[in-house]
Design goal:
- This protein has a seven-stranded mixed sheet with strand order 3-2-1-4-5-7-6, with helices on both faces.
- It contains nine helices and seven strands.
- The longest helix is centred in the middle third of the chain and has 16 residues.
- α1 runs antiparallel to α8 and α8 packs antiparallel against α9.
- The chain starts with about 30 loop residues before the first helix and ends with a strand.
- It has one domain: 3-Layer(aba) Sandwich (Rossmann fold).
- It has about 280 residues and is α/β, with parallel strands linked by helices.
Length: about 280
């Protein structure tokens, strides 16, 4: 049986709170141009690198739901890994779903479907309809993570799994002051709309509170290194595109030039730590 290890005080993450905004609301958070930048940032993602904790659960004819699929990189990887099965990717951003559909068509992947949907209320998905319900870097961005996990549990089949992986920290060396301002602005913006940018420390507790007994919960961690020039460029483009808006007194062109110099510096490095949790539905 897994022991509880709460790092931060727990709150009513599954209940509506006053003065917060639903993070999965119908109004898109990002413009089409920003989604294209995120697409570049996310394009490298795949099951082997980002979701290896669920790979062994993918069997013949597996039905997989990818919650918060963004532009579909992991979803399409799951579909390739699961050729005899079916994969559905959902996201509340219409621009992301449009790009995901485009990628599926370009790659000729036919066992995948993408829909615009709200992870906090998946009312168009039947109970007990998927073997694997997966989310990657999603709970950090939602207002009510327990509500999302309860919905994920509802649509998972008995004997199936609910899996989440969330970022704990991104180590950057050497730090770039202007880039750090953008990261801090993203965190502040997330908190202002009721999201949980440090929620990875609590995802195991959220899974438990969503209805999974401790004896049916697995936990682990994974890391990734984005230290090649291409990966550093993709990561910084995602940071700068994150709907953050300009920083007062900072010229955008000058910022992009400075960041590109940081990317090209062989001393710079980006390393990240994620935590993952699997809940077994029995």
């Amino acid at each position: 049986m897994h022991q509880r290890a709460c790092v931060f005080p727990c709150g009513p993450y599954g209940k509506p709170m006053a003065n917060t905004v639903r993070s999965m609301a119908s109004k898109p958070l990002y413009t089409s141009n920003q989604m294209y930048n995120f697409d570049d940032c996310f394009a490298h993602r795949n099951i082997g690198y980002n979701s290896p904790h669920i790979a062994s659960y993918v069997q013949e004819n597996t039905r997989i739901l990818d919650v918060g699929c963004s532009t579909g990189a992991i979803t399409l990887s799951l579909a390739k890994h699961n050729p005899s099965g079916y994969v559905l990717g959902i996201d509340h951003e219409p621009g992301a779903i449009s790009l995901a559909k485009q990628h599926a068509k370009e790659e000729g992947i036919t066992n995948v479907e993408f829909r615009v949907a709200n992870a906090e209320d998946m009312d168009d998905i039947q109970d007990e309809s998927f073997d694997i319900v997966h989310a990657h870097q999603v709970l950090l961005h939602v207002t009510y993570p327990i509500t999302v996990l309860k919905e994920m549990r509802r649509v998972a089949k008995t004997g199936g799994i609910v899996a989440t992986r969330d970022n704990c920290h991104v180590f950057r060396h050497p730090e770039h002051p202007l880039l750090e301002q953008h990261v801090n602005k993203f965190i502040a913006r997330s908190l202002a709309r009721g999201a949980h940018p440090v929620g990875s420390h609590l995802n195991h507790e959220w899974v438990n509170e969503a209805g999974f007994p401790w004896e049916y919960i697995e936990m682990g961690a994974g890391s990734w290194d984005w230290s090649s020039p291409e990966n550093k460029r993709n990561w910084t483009s995602g940071v700068l595109a994150g709907g953050l808006g300009p920083i007062e007194g900072i010229d955008r062109a000058a910022l992009e030039k400075e960041v590109e110099e940081w990317v090209k510096n062989p001393r710079t490095r980006i390393i990240a730590l994620d935590s993952w949790v699997i809940g077994h539905k029995n």
